[in-house]
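SEQUENCE-TO-STRUCTURE ENTRY
===========================

Backbone structure tokens: a row of integers, each naming the local backbone shape at its residue.

Task: work out the structure tokens from the sequence, keeping to the layout shown below.
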Amino acid sequence: MAKIDAFFQLMHDQGASDLHLVSGQQPALRIRGDIERIKYDILTNDSLRVLLYEITPEHKIKHFEETGDVDFAYEVPNLARYRVNYFRQKNGIGAVFREIPDKISTCAQLGLPEVISKLATLPRGLVLVTGPTGSGKSTTLAAIIDEANRLRKDHIITIEDPIEFVHKSQNCIVNQREVGIHTKTFASALRGALREDPDIILVGEMRDLDTISLAVEAASTGHLVFSTVHTTSAAKTVDRIIEVFPASEQLQIRSTLADGLRAVVSQVLFKRVDIKSRCVALEICIATPAVRNLIRESKTYQIPSMMQTGRKYGMQLLDDAIMDLLSRGWISADEAYIKANDKARFRPLLKYPPTDFTEA
């Protein structure tokens, strides 16, 4: 048992999502969204390096020493898996560990709308799950992939950096590939995947032009592709993808994306005020023919209006979902205001409305 495993046990017992180990500071946990210090000695650079290198593969140590950053996954048997990032900072080495549950929750257990689980049954197309870092995108995607794994008889390929949730083949054949170990880049793995008889492809993150281009192409040629983007709404997601391409190619990609897109799910995590837990607010955009026409005609600013009239398809705006959580008494008005897109809608609900200089 590695010495650092004691921190992971504490993290698990406290229900923390992340563990922070940084030279020159005490260890800390993120619990229900807040950073809380652990009563422990201040970590020195040398002592932390020894602690971290005990669990780090040799090739990852070499990569870290050369570049100052590295990602990989670590597993404590019978406890959990962890997504790991090491980095250098002013006082020395630093590390953050994100706990990944060993059991994949279903869409129902996560409290997700029924339309989310139905995404697993789509025959083809592109489904994007978006939101800020730490908003639960990987958890939602894992639930959808697990649903497909149980219900379909297909070949699922995941391309991740690193592998997070582990999917055991059920009715589907599941192959999981990790960037840096099983393949060099997302783009090269995606090119290879298209020759590996896939039905469903999960791309951990659409980071660059090559990856985005290949993912859109795969979705347009009969595959079901899932991926993530760091955006906060359906309209912004479409714009972000198109803006990655050179101006001369944007008309073409706009048309291709309009044909291939099936859904955009944007999510934000909230701290619950009624119990010690967190909950998620979702914006759901289903790519109906009307939505696809807006994308094709460069009218993405009209997508929110289309979503308001598309409730029968399972669509909802993020602010409507936030208002629902607020009306249930699950979240605070202050946090609702901070994370809402239309802050004017939530401002009258605050006891002490702030003076927001960004809206001046």
Notes: The radius of gyration is 21 Å. Residues 5-100 form a domain with the Beta-Lactamase fold (CATH 3.30.450.90). The chain has a mean pLDDT of 93.
